[in-house]
Specification:
With 561 residues, the chain is of the alpha/beta class. Helices cover 26% and strands 22% of the residues. It has 2 domains: 10-262, 3-Layer(aba) Sandwich (Rossmann fold), CATH 3.40.50.620; 341-470 and 505-560, Ribosomal Protein L25, Chain P, CATH 2.40.240.10. It contains 13 helices and 29 strands. Helix 7 (212-222) packs across helix 8 (238-248). Adenosine-5'-triphosphate binds next to helix 2, strand 8 and helix 9.
Length: 561
């Protein structure tokens, strides 16, 4: 895997210090701990690149661990997709694939240890009662009336909870910490709850499930993790992480928090992404508009571009919103160097060269990639009737419009200079049906022998040779920079962009594109970068997805003309 010298960050600095101080016997061991309750998104990619990247650069290890303690929301479909996405991003957990559910027995035994130490108790309060007695930031909580149960009674009740003797929600196991602790999470937090639900791995073996806070640190410890890297919202959980490991007296990884990735015009929350899928606002988790890894893959992103983006945005301690343009630029820069060029006319209008011989066909040589001479050339057929983009012609051109208009000469890329002589319109609608031009045979290949100036070069395809293919233009899924920020009582879906997908059916493409392979990527000259959709294309029948436009602001200014 190509890796420019990794940029350092505060997490790496902490690791350097730990290594310098001889901690953990010089080991570096991280983990990526997704909950299998949805598909991974670009925010997870940041965490994956950080955790696996550190393991790689420090010659350490990184585990993949499914944090699967909520049977109701988790599913094997998610497990499969997560593994596929981590691999696709270019990372390898080797044989270190773990599940929190593998540790259910050990976690249970540790809970018994805490009960024996008088550090955990069975509580019969309802969730509502617990919430009410927790207190506030300014007021201490009130102890549960069950807090002083004897160790024997707690052990007996906990065993019976496990045996399924009580209904869901009837009892929980709580840590016995401090009801006056300034950190509310330390006020006797819940460690276990009863859920008579089938788990995707343990089936009906357990009806007692540990909470995230109880589980996470113990799993880290059991796996010998040295640095447990997580996002900032877990900073307030750290005292609890530390408390559990200290009370159990087991290996104690260091928890380090970093700022999660927020992207402009994008939502990165599995819960909300699930809602988009369930309410059919998008075509599944892999819809090319989704910020999921599988969506980005189908959109045409490469793993390299995503890794470069993650490296570029860095790792910080404060939350911020990263501009989506940065992600788009990472794929633009790459495809500029690697994607073969092709000519495609997305919204065609016919251009007829009146003085070109009707039966004649010429083949012009076109450069496959000006950035990569080794990519060579191809030939494209040229004839009397062509298609050009509607927007490359204006009957009454505004001031800064230099493309084709009556009386004006432009260059047809690789072919000839042509001058517009007339237009034919639909008598009913007034829409332009044909643009008539004359060509100058002395300009073959697009070169003017007298060096006369033409201000514009436009792309074209030969009408009789062109293929037709559906072309899907994708745009931001949300119109607002911060889509989660909506008025009281409004749903986040109000900021969905109604124009996030436009499907063109009349586009005309150069004939060679009929052989474009699913997953391959092209630059349609002057138009943007496109990929052949992996799901909807078949042999000889490509469907193209727009990955990104060619430029960001430029494209917007130009399209206003
Ligand atoms: P979401 O909020 O999208 O549901 P999550 O944090 O619940 O995400 P997990 O499956 O628990 O999802 O996440 C696995 C790991 O990925 C965690 O360590 C989490 O901190 C990290 N992670 C999740 N979202 C982001 C993000 N936006 N930026 C960076 N890391 C993230
Ligand atoms: Mg989570």
């Amino acid at each position: 895997m190509e890796t420019p010298k990794p940029s350092t960050n505060f997490v790496r600095e902490i690791i350097d210090e730990d290594l310098a101080a001889g901690r953990n016997g010089g080991r570096v061991h991280t983990r990526f701990p997704p909950e299998p309750n949805g598909y991974l998104h670009i925010g997870h990619a940041k965490s994956i690149c950080l955790n696996f990247g550190i393991a790689r650069d420090y010659k350490g290890l990184c585990n993949l661990r499914f944090d699967d303690t909520n049977p109701e929301t988790e599913d094997v479909e998610y497990v499969q997709s997560i593994m596929e996405d981590v691999r696709w991003l270019g990372f390898d957990w080797q044989q270190r694939l773990f599940y929190a559910s593998d540790y259910f027995q050990q976690l249970y035994d540790y809970a018994v240890t805490l009960i024996r130490k008088g550090k955990a108790f069975v509580c019969d309060q309802s969730l509502e009662e617990m919430r009410k007695s927790r207190g506030t930031i300014t007021e201490p909580g009130t102890a549960s009336p069950y807090r002083n149960r004897s160790v024997e009674e707690n052990l007996d009740l906990f065993a019976r909870m496990r045996n399924g003797e009580f209904a869901d929600g009837a009892r929980v196991l709580r840590g016995k910490i401090d009801m006056a602790h300034p950190n509310l999470l330390m006020r006797d937090p819940v460690f276990y709850r009863i859920r008579k639900a089938a788990h995707h791995r343990t089936g009906s073996k357990w009806c007692l499930y540990p909470t995230y806070d109880y589980t996470h640190g113990i799993c880290d410890s059991l796996e010998g993790i040295t640095h447990s890297i997580c996002t900032l919202e877990f900073e307030v959980h750290r005292p609890l992480y530390d408390w559990i490991l200290n009370e159990l007296g087991i290996h104690h990884p260091r928890q380090i928090e970093f700022a999660r990735l927020n992207l402009s015009n994008t939502l990165l929350s599995k819960r909300k992404l699930l809602e988009l899928v369930q309410k059919k606002h998008v075509d599944g988790w892999s819809d090319p508009r989704m910020p999921t890894i599988s969506g980005l893959r189908r959109r045409g992103y490469t793993p390299e571009a995503i890794r470069r983006f993650c490296d570029q945005i860095g790792v910080a301690k404060v939350d911020s919103i990263v501009d989506l343009v940065l992600l788009e630029n990472s794929i633009r820069e790459e495809l500029n160097k690697t994607a073969p060029r092709a000519m495609a006319v997305l919204r065609p209008v016919k251009l007829i060269i009146d003085n070109y011989p009707p039966e004649q066909v010429e083949a012009f040589e076109a450069v496959n990639n000006p950035e990569m001479p080794a990519a060579g050339t191809r030939t494209v057929p040229f004839s009397r009737e062509l298609y050009i983009e509607q927007e490359d012609f204006r009957e009454a051109p505004p001031k800064q419009f230099y493309r084709l208009s009556p009386g004006r000469e432009v260059r047809l890329r690789y072919a000839y200079l042509v001058t517009c002589v007339s237009v034919a319109k639909d008598p009913q609608t007034g829409a332009i049906r044909e643009i008539h031009c004359t060509y100058d045979p002395a300009t073959r290949g697009g070169n003017a022998p007298d060096n006369r100036k033409v201000k514009s070069t436009i792309h074209w395809v030969s009408a009789q040779h062109a293929i037709e293919a559906p072309v899907r233009l994708y745009d931001n899924l949300f119109t607002k920079r911060d889509p989660g920020e909506v008025a009281e009582g409004q749903d986040f879906t109000v900021t969905l962009n109604p124009k996030s997908l436009e499907t063109l059916t009349g586009s005309k493409l150069e004939p060679g594109l009929a052989r474009a392979l699913p997953g391959s990527r092209y630059q349609f000259e002057r138009v943007g970068y496109f990929t052949v959709d992996m799901q909807d294309s078949s042999a000889g029948r490509p469907v193209f997805n727009r990955i990104v436009t060619l430029r960001d602001t430029w494209a917007k200014i130009e399209s206003k003309l």
